[in-house]
């Protein structure tokens, strides 16, 4: 399995399929069956999922970078004065 393949557990799929069906019903005034909703979910996971996955990675990287900057600042503040200048 490729690490960027997006897969869901059966329980997750059931929740997502229910949400897709509800969206179609409420927003589009169309009924969609569970099979079609799951097919749509698989399509989006395969064709568009990588965009969401990558966005999550970028967001996580930005948070980690900010936290590392905070840690570096905290460590710098712990330094004691010496005659050595860096």
Can you lay out the helices and strands and say which pair or pack?
Layout: H1 10-28, H2 34-47, H3 49-78
Helix pairs in contact: 1-2
Task: Explain what this protein looks like in three dimensions.
The structure is a single chain. This protein has 86 residues and is mainly alpha-helical. Helix content is 73%, strand content 0%. The chain is built from 3 helices and no strands. It has helices spanning 10-28, 34-47, 49-78. Helix 1 (10-28) packs across helix 2 (34-47). It is rod-shaped, with a radius of gyration of 23 Å. The N and C termini lie far apart (48 Å). The model has no long low-confidence stretch (mean pLDDT 92).
Distance between the termini: 48 Å
The number of helical elements comes to 3
Residues in helix, %: over 70%
Mean pLDDT: 92
Strand content: under 5%
Label the structural class.
mainly alpha
Rg, Å, rounded: 23 Å
Q: Which word captures the global form?
A: rod-shaped
Query: Would you report the number of β strands?
Result: 0
Please trace the helix and strand order, writing H or E for each element: HHH
Oligomer: single chain
What does the main sheet amount to?
A: none
* Low-pLDDT segments: none
Structural key phrases:
86 residues, mainly alpha, single chain, 0% strand
Question: Would you summarize the structure shown here?
Answer:
This protein has 86 residues and is mainly α. The protein is built from 3 helices and no strands. It is rod-shaped and about 75 Å long.
